[in-house]
Amino acid sequence: MLRRAGSSLRHFLLERKSSAGYSSCSREAKMSRPVQARRLEGIDKNIWVEFVKLAATYSKVNLGQGFPDFPAPDFLQEALKRALSEGSHMLHQYTRAFGHPPLVKVLAQIFEKLLGRELDPMTNVMVTVGAYQALFCCFQAFVDEGDEVVVIEPFFDCYESMVKMAGGTSVFVPLRPKAPKDGKLMSSADWQLDPAELASKFSERTKAIVLNSPNNPLGKVFSRGELELIAELCVKHDVLCISDEVYEWLVYDGKEHIRIASLPGMWDRTVTIGSAGKTFSATGWKVGWTVGPDRLLQHVRTVHQNSVYHCATIAQEAVAQGFQRELTLYGKPESYFVQLPRTLQQKRDLLIQSLVAVGIKPIVPEGTYFLVADISEFKSDVPEVPNSDEPYDCRFTKWMMKNKGLAAIPLSTFYSEAHKNNYPNFIRFCFAKEEATLKAANDILQKWKKEKTSS
């Protein structure tokens, strides 16, 4: 028996040796057929990957990417510690796929107040891996080949890519700036939709409109009148609204954030998207959500269960505790939802002062982490390159990072290919930073201004 086994083994090894040449060739053979899916064509390049790398390499002060460099609130950090050390061991395991029960329940309670209607936490709320995944699920759930999606420019750049991946076509409509009166600084409110132009973008092919209020990058908070115009067109053309409201708590100067789902005729056709990262200054936790009618969310759940399926239980538990605190303090001065916008408004004003002092003209944002500014005063440092394929603001921002150590994001990032050169002298800064970071940015700008004056 042992002899037979040994003989068989020798035979196997001899055969393997004789076929070694073939095996070597097969390992070296390369595929010749295309491997990339057509839906990825044209979206492989991502400016965030490029600019994050540049900022990490060259910048001393990063006012580019939109995240706070100050800590999340103590109560949220304590909630995470409790969940890790004192919570049930089951918090380290899977929870409900569509949202940890304590989190969807408290979100339903919060949004019942905000929307003025009763919500079922199990069917009207779904938790996602950040608002980014919520957006992806919506586009995959609702957009088919041949569908058109109205996108308001400037826009968060992933909208266009996600529409394309779903097989749809983005139809762009711009916010157009109106010059302010009496020499005042321009406000994000001065960027407005033209009602006739917006109406012209709707057709029988229109499946949805993407609304982002407060808007990234401008910081525009859409007024009730503007939202009613959008709502009227959605109802008239039987169109869905994907409402990205991740900055819903970050509004300034007494402005009011109005949720379009609360307007007549809009609940049944709107999915509202939110973010714990922006709400609690914890962007790395990647906890987001969708709120809407079951007839819409059932399809969003289908995409979720067949892709990501589940979000981190421990992070959901901590966010749920954070919302429980805020529900108790709702509308009170101690609420983080009251305190955070006050703090950020002060930071916004600090950056505005620094920019104005050196001749850069900011567009005063009504909300978000961001402000857009006109850098024409410094254009002489980065001359135009005739017939360049790269937008001027892109080249300027790269030069500023490499030569001045200050990171920002070009405004052209937030425009479609056809419109990237419409506002070449504008870049976006993030002011959700420590005072020391904003002071360091001010020092760079002041030094730069002195160098220009003395040259």
UniProtKB/TrEMBL annotation:
This protein's cofactor list reads:
pyridoxal 5'-phosphate
Q: Please give the pathway this protein is involved in.
A: Amino-acid degradation; L-kynurenine degradation; kynurenate from L-kynurenine: step 1/2
Q: In what residue span(s) does the Aminotransferase class I/classII large domain sit?
A: 60-441
Q: What are the EC numbers?
A: 2.6.1.64, 2.6.1.7, 4.4.1.13
Annotated organism of origin: Pipra filicauda (Wire-tailed manakin)
Q: Does the keyword Lyase apply?
A: yes
What reaction gets catalysed by this protein? Answer: L-kynurenine + 2-oxoglutarate = kynurenate + L-glutamate + H2O; an S-substituted L-cysteine + H2O = a thiol + pyruvate + NH4(+); 3-phenylpyruvate + L-glutamine = 2-oxoglutaramate + L-phenylalanine
What subcellular locations does the record give? Cytoplasm, Cytosol
Instruction: Name the major location.
Output: cytoplasm
Gene Ontology CC entries for this record: cytosol; mitochondrion
Question: Could you describe the subunit structure of this protein?
Answer: Homodimer.
Keyword Translocase in record: no
List keywords of the entry alphabetically.
Aminotransferase, Cytoplasm, Lyase, Pyridoxal phosphate, Transferase
Q: Listed GO molecular functions?
A: cysteine-S-conjugate beta-lyase activity; glutamine-phenylpyruvate transaminase activity; kynurenine-oxoglutarate transaminase activity; pyridoxal phosphate binding
InterPro entries noted in UniProt: Aminotransferase_I/II_large, Kynurenine-oxoglutarate_AT, PyrdxlP-dep_Trfase, PyrdxlP-dep_Trfase_major, PyrdxlP-dep_Trfase_small
One annotated GO biological process = kynurenine metabolic process
Q: What protein does this entry describe?
A: Kynurenine--oxoglutarate transaminase 1
Q: Quote the CDD domains the UniProt record gives.
A: AAT_like
